[in-house]
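Reopening this one. Same input as before:
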Amino acid sequence: MTRFMDVHHGMQGITAEQLKQAHQADLAIEKEEGVHFERAWADPESGTVYCLSEAPSADAVQRIHERTGHKADEIHAVPLTIS
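Same output, byte for byte:
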C-alpha cells in the first residue's frame, strides 16, 4: 500500500468539529475501497485541509472523498518518509 497526502481547498472557517465529522465520514466507509485514513489537518484561515492515508491508489482515496461529499483537489503519493 502507498501513502497519500490529499489536499482540499476552499474550506475557510472549518472548525475542529467539522474536520472531525468529515474524517469520521471517511473512516465509516474507507474499508470498501481498501483505504485507511490516518490523520487530517486543517488551516481554517486559508481553507486548506490535508489528509494522510494508506491506499491501493489515488483513485480509491478520491472515491471515498467523493462519496462523503468532500472531493480532494489534489492527491499526492508519498512513497518516502522519515521519522
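So the earlier flakiness isn't reproducible anymore. For the record, The longest strand covers residues 36-43.
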